[in-house]
Amino acid sequence: SSGSGAAGSGGSGSTTALSCGSTPYPSLGDAVCDSCAVAQCCDSFLTCQADSVCKCYWQCTDAGNTKCDATCGLPVTVPPKYPAAYGDHGLCLFNNCQSECNL
Questions:
Q1: Are 56 and 72 in contact (CB under 8 A)?
Q2: Whole-angstrom Cα distance, residue 27 to residue 34?
Q3: Please, which of 2, 20, 70, 103 could form a disulfide with 42 given CB 3.0 to 4.6 Å?
């Protein structure tokens, strides 16, 4: 029985490497945006990283690739569909870090 609770992870320690728990969080390019993303949206990031399709999609788009739906085994549709967890994380950033990340 493995618990998936993320309670107690976090804090106000000053760390240079971004992470959500033990998972590295990719920099969004701006320190203010990054700190907001890590503070507000780690849960949705970790949910995505725990899902193989979402993690694939994240890494694919993060590398600047297109057609990540086909690459990651999603049905190819127009407009393209992306994993729900990926959309949830984007929505979290938009709702919580809009000004910090210039969204």
A1: yes
A2: 6
A3: 20
Based on the number of CB atoms within 10 Å of its own CB, is 58 exposed (0-12), middle (13-18) or buried (19 or more)? buried
* In contact, 72 and 60? CB cutoff 8 Å: yes
> What is the structure's pLDDT at 14?
40
Tens-place pLDDT, residues 50-61: 999 999 999 999
H/E stretch holding 12 reads none
Span 37-64, average pLDDT: 94
Pairing of strands 23-24, 19-20: antiparallel
Sign (positive or negative) of CA dihedral 70, 75, 76, 77:
negative
Residues in CB range of 82: below 8 A, 6 or more apart: 57, 68, 69, 74
**Cβ(57)–Cβ(63) below 8 Å:** no
Q: How many residues does the chain have?
A: 103
Are residues 88 and 44 in contact, defined by beta-carbon separation less than 8 angstroms? yes
